[in-house]
């Protein structure tokens, strides 16, 4: 608990560690009422440190110190200073061994940082600063040591004892206890340490690497989850092969382990050789997981596996460099997912997340650069900017260099920095050195926060056949940053002729062979490009594939957007044109009378999507999704959420009524014939069917209702079951909704991952998720205040997805969220700080809303003993 005002930590204060740790010898005695941790560190002065005879300072948090010994001699309390958060020894030799014994209480650890218990098993989460909750240690990623770990526990209750590396010893002890010893040959920062002890079943497989080594693959889960491992195991093998083929990266230990735990603050963690996952991000079966969950699991398994090189073998020097591993690894997992499924669909999903949530973050009070310059609590910086914008920055390097030079760059990076803790600048330098390109201006992407705005204008000179495109770049101010310099932006584009054909892009009149797509490089505030031999006024297809994380402003007409929807060879921009058109139609309706006309061309465009079976069905499934409320809010100047919600619903209802027969036909056509498969085609089929069903129920169509009830009863997979349940939950058929929810709960009450989906579908629904319903869900026997997934599925879904209910004009949604944040602040500050996010955007909303959101933030600010996590978010939001 915080006792004084939290300190700000600055990148500019970085100093190399005064002491290094070569080896760590750990012995854990695990008991029901606590754990004793014996640690012996081989420490030496860092030759690179300038300080003369500095004190030894070790980090600690919530530790009971039992003893300290230096080179085998016990120290008395006058030899060291235990400041609680630091253990300081004033004078130490150049090289020595330090033994520390601490007592901790994992069973009472509700913060889920360090060593804690989840459904009866012991597990750890050490990133970013959890290792200091286990023992005193220089808890910073640039101190890398070799770990040896002995775990002792009751044999019956904890038959499985795991840590990083290879198992080197095991045996029985007195009193029904046993032990196991693990050794990790690779030096690593302590944030990659992991320990697991529990009664778990083991699933085994093997993988033969490119050099012919056999790797033992093991998954450990609670017995009831034994049948939910196959998908993750297959995903792991695909990831291992892919990283060899695409990045030349081979796995380096003999064992690779995955453990599933129910209580976990984040998605998963890449601990060396022992990845620990949130159950919801790894366990799947046809009956219990949706297509989206299958895809998410594949991506997260890949992400954590890829960290073995981008994060573990080459790690971060300090936490300001977090995107070095996270941005690069997200880029790698998105390339992987694109290769496993539909690249266009994957791009659409990534951009949707970026444009709704990351752009909002980058335009709000918590905006920070991809490489931040300061922070109070590092846990607050596991953000969309670090992860998603960071991945976009790496993607732009890939675009600028091309795949071959990029691969040369990544090879050089891994080879040059293997075993080191480095910076984002080292990454960029490797890319420069391998390619010969100058990325000095490009580095601004790491330093400047805020989403660049590109304002595009054009003119066509018919007489000369010249098309002129002018692009102006501006970067908005963000907290602590004004007057930004222009950034280096790769801007991919094409031009379409009046017949829909792509035109050659001739930048000089004598250019012979010109491509039909180019990547222009923007480096100045304003650029004008001239394209020659253009026969008639073209339609520009701008920022293809979303080649940079920027906003584009261009005065598109609805005709142009419809034209691009039909003709753009870039699938991403076809989708984006549809989104822009729908945004335009919805925005025009916000606050206008209920009989205001909806553009019939939108209806016809959607009819074509639903009825034309020659189109790529995976893309169609995406194009049918109207822009979300969250995205419409992001685009608004001063958002009135209930008005946005109503306008969007009116468009949906209008489309559903006009296309009613086509929707029924589409639903019938997409009926499944063969067995359940998770392929892009099958996923698209299910998505189309469930979209059609949802639309039919929006307009209270009785045939739709019958189809939904039948689908719910006959579904052999969770995607269809959830599709039908969601449609009913969001309909006016109240009796069916109640019945469907009760039946669903009875069927799945013993499966926490499904119960979480059941909570979420209600909490996110404007029909079933009014505040009084939410309060009932919190009182439900399956709700658990100690389980982050349950908190996210009820409170997170309400505040993050059920936007019309959350933004109730009476302010009740905001007060409710503030109360829950205060309640959680004591038990789990990381989760509490995450939940504040919707309130941090208060300045985005119309005055009637924003003033009440501000009061809710003040209510949190005034709570006694606020955690550092919540303190930082609330104070920065109100500043
Ligand atoms: N490194 C993990 C990942 O794969 C995330 C860990 C986040 N931990 C935290 N305390 N915020 O992305
Ligand atoms: Zn990661």
Automatic annotation (TrEMBL):
Q: Where is the Aminopeptidase N-like N-terminal domain?
A: 61-192
Instruction: State the EC number(s).
Output: 3.4.11.2
Entry's family note? Belongs to the peptidase M1 family.
Job of this protein? Aminopeptidase N is involved in the degradation of intracellular peptides generated by protein breakdown during normal growth as well as in response to nutrient starvation.
Claim: Hydrolase is one of the keywords in the record = yes
TM spans, by residue? Answer: none
What is the organism of origin for this protein?
Marinobacter gudaonensis
Protein name in UniProt: Aminopeptidase N
Q: Does the keyword DNA repair apply?
A: no
Residue ranges annotated for the Peptidase M1 membrane alanine aminopeptidase domain, each copy included: 232-442
Its top-level enzyme class, in one word, is hydrolase
GO MF term (any one): alanyl aminopeptidase activity
Q: Which Gene3D superfamilies match?
A: 2.60.40.1840, 3.30.2010.30, Neutral Protease Domain 2, Peptidase M1, alanyl aminopeptidase, C-terminal domain, tricorn interacting facor f3 domain
For this protein, the record's InterPro entries field holds: Aminopeptidase_N-like_N (IPR045357), Aminopeptidase_N-like_N_sf (IPR042097), PepN_Ig-like_sf (IPR038438), Peptidase_M1 (IPR001930), Peptidase_M1_dom (IPR014782), Peptidase_M1_pepN (IPR012779), Peptidase_M1_pepN_C (IPR024601), Peptidase_M1_pepN_C_sf (IPR037144)
Domain spans labelled Peptidase M1 alanyl aminopeptidase Ig-like fold? 450-554
Q: Which cofactor does it need?
A: Zn(2+)
The chain positions of domain Peptidase M1 alanyl aminopeptidase C-terminal read 559-879
- Give the record's GO biological process terms: proteolysis
């Amino acid at each position: 608990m915080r006792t004084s005002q939290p300190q700000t930590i600055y990148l500019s204060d970085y100093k190399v560690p005064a002491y290094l740790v070569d080896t760590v010898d750990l012995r854990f005695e695990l008991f029901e009422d606590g754990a004793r941790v014996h640690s012996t560190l081989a420490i030496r002065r860092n030759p690179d440190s300038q300080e003369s005879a500095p004190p030894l300072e070790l980090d600690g948090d919530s530790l009971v110190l039992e003893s300290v010994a230096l080179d085998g001699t016990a120290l008395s309390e006058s030899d060291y200073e235990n400041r609680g958060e630091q253990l300081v020894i004033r004078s130490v030799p150049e090289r020595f061994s330090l033994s520390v014994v601490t007592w901790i209480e994992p069973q009472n650890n509700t913060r889920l940082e360090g060593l804690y218990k989840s459904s009866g098993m012991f597990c750890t989460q050490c990133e970013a600063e959890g290792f200091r909750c286990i023992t005193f240690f220089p808890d910073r990623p640039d101190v890398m040591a070799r770990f040896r770990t002995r775990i002792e526990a009751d044999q019956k209750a904890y038959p499985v004892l795991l840590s990083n590396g290879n198992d080197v010893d095991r045996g029985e002890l007195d009193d029904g206890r046993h032990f196991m010893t693990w050794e990790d040959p690779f030096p690593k920062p302590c944030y990659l340490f992991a320990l697991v002890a529990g009664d778990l079943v083991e699933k085994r497989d093997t993988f033969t690497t490119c050099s012919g080594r056999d790797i033992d693959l093991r998954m450990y889960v609670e017995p009831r989850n034994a049948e939910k491992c196959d998908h993750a195991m297959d995903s792991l093998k695909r990831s291992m092969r892919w990283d060899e083929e695409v990045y030349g990266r081979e796995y380096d230990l003999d064992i690779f382990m995955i453990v599933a735990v129910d209580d976990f603050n984040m998605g998963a963690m890449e601990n060396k050789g022992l990845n620990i996952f949130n159950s919801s991000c790894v366990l799947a079966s046809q009956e219990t997981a949706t297509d989206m969950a299958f895809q998410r699991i594949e991506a997260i398994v890949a992400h954590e596996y890829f960290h073995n090189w981008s994060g573990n073998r080459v790690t971060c020097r300090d936490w300001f460099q977090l995107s070095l591993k996270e941005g690069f690894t997200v880029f790698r997992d998105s390339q992987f997912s694109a290769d496993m499924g539909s690249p266009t669909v994957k791009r659409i999903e990534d951009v949707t997340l970026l444009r709704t949530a990351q752009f909002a973050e980058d335009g709000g009070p918590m905006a920070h650069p991809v490489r931040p310059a300061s922070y109070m609590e590092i846990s607050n910086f596991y953000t969309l900017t670090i992860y998603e914008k960071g991945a976009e920055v790496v993607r732009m390097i890939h675009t600028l260099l091309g795949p071959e030079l990029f691969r040369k760059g990544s090879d050089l990076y891994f080879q040059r920095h293997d075993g080191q803790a480095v910076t984002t600048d080292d990454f960029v330098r490797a890319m420069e050195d391998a390619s010969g390109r100058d990325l000095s201006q490009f580095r601004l992407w790491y330093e400047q926060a805020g989403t660049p705005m590109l304002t595009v204008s054009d003119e066509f000179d018919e007489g000369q056949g010249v098309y002129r495109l002018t692009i102006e770049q501006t970067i908005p101010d963000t907290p602590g940053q004004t007057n930004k310099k222009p950034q280096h932006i790769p801007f991919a584009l094409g031009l379409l002729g009046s017949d829909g054909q792509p035109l050659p892009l001739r930048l000089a009149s004598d250019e012979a062979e010109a491509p039909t797509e180019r990547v222009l490089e923007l480096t100045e505030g304003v650029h004008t490009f001239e394209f020659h031999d253009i026969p008639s006024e073209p339609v520009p297809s701008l920022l293809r594939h979303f080649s940079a994380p920027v906003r584009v402003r261009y005065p598109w007409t609805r005709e142009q957007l419809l034209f691009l929807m039909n003709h753009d060879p870039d699938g991403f921009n076809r989708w984006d044109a549809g989104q822009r058109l729908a945004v335009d139609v919805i925005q025009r309706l916000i606050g206008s009378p209920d009989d205001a006309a909806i553009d019939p061309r939108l209806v016809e465009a959607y009819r074509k999507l639903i009825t034309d079976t020659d189109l790529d069905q995976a893309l169609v499934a995406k194009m049918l999704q109207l822009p979300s409320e969250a995205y419409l809010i992001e685009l608004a100047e001063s958002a009135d959420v209930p008005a946005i919600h109503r306008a969007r619903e009116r468009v949906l209802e209008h489309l559903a009524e006009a296309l009613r027969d086509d929707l029924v036909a589409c639903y019938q056509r997409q009926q499944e014939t063969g067995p359940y498969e998770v392929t892009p085609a099958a996923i698209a089929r299910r998505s189309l069917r469930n979209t059609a069903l949802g639309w039919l129920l929006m307009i209270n169509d009785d045939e739709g209702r019958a189809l939904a009830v039948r689908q719910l009863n006959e579904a052999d997979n969770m995607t269809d079951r959830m599709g039908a349940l969601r449609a009913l939950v969001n309909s006016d058929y109240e009796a069916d909704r109640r019945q469907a929810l009760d039946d669903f709960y009875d069927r799945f009450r013993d499966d926490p991952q499904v119960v979480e989906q059941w909570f979420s579908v209600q909490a996110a629904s404007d029909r079933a998720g009014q505040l009084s319903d939410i309060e009932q869900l919190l009182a439900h026997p399956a709700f658990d205040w100690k389980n982050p997934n349950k908190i996210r599925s009820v409170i997170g879904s309400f505040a993050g997805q059920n936007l019309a209910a959350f933004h109730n004009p009476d302010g009740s949604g905001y007060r409710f969220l503030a109360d829950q944040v205060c309640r959680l602040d004591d038990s789990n500050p990381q989760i509490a700080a995450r939940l504040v996010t919707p309130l941090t955007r208060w300045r985005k909303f119309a005055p009637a809303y924003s003033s009440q959101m501000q009061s809710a933030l003040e209510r949190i600010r005034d709570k006694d003993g606020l955690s550092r996590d919540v303190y930082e978010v609330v104070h920065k939001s109100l500043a």
